[in-house]
Write a sequence for this structure.
């Protein structure tokens, strides 16, 4: 059974850069899936950040595109998120997830809370 | 960007009764609509994709219907474990994937 696990700092300073990694187990990241990041501010709804295909093709939310980079490391079976110029509005639980063209976001990590504060 | 609007924001239903959640798209998304369930402190869980296809291991009491701009999630007989927040998501026109704002299903 596939599992996804986010890791990274829980606290980021304003104007700083968030770096998160999602380790995938039980499935190859080279499979025919996209690998995604979704976030959820405390008490609010879900916002798609972006996703990457195993070939390296990326797709980003236009509202975040200027600040987001998603990359994949096939040798470690993991993918990563970088979000620059962080503000308090970026405080959220960040989830990694698998996206299938047919099956959508069918597997999720447990999520990691990232707080932006000095 | 396609805007997804759910109603109601909160739904109070008694166990054993039927619950219906609505989702409207700002433009047609064909049948490219998914539903998720989220419990406190947990990640979302895929329930329905293709507007009406249940995901793996999802009980038959969950059903989805609709196409175009109007969609419905129905839970035929509410169990205690069904009280949660439900989200719809369109994938007809992306980027971006867009979610509804959520419907909280609470015990009456």
């Amino acid at each position: 059974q596939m599992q996804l696990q986010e890791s990274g700092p829980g606290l980021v300073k304003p104007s700083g850069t968030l770096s998160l990694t999602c380790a995938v187990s039980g499935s190859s990241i080279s499979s025919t899936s996209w690998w995604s990041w979704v976030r959820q501010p405390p008490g609010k709804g879900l916002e798609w950040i972006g996703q990457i295909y195993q070939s390296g093709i990326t797709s980003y939310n236009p509202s975040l595109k200027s600040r987001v980079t998603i990359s994949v490391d096939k040798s470690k079976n993991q993918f990563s998120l970088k979000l620059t110029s962080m503000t308090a509005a970026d405080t959220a639980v960040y989830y990694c997830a698998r996206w299938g063209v047919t099956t959508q976001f069918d597997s999720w990590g447990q999520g990691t809370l990232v707080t932006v504060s000095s | 960007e396609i805007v997804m609007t759910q109603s109601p924001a909160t739904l109070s239903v008694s166990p054993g009764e039927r619950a219906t959640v609505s989702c409207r798209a700002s433009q047609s998304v064909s049948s490219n609509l998914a539903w998720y369930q989220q419990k406190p402190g947990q990640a979302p869980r895929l329930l329905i994709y293709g507007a009406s296809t249940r995901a793996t291991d999802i009980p038959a009491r969950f059903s989805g219907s609709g196409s175009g701009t109007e969609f419905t999630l129905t839970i035929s007989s509410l169990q205690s474990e069904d009280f949660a927040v439900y989200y719809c998501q369109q994938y007809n026109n992306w980027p971006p994937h867009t979610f509804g704002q959520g419907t909280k299903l609470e015990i009456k």
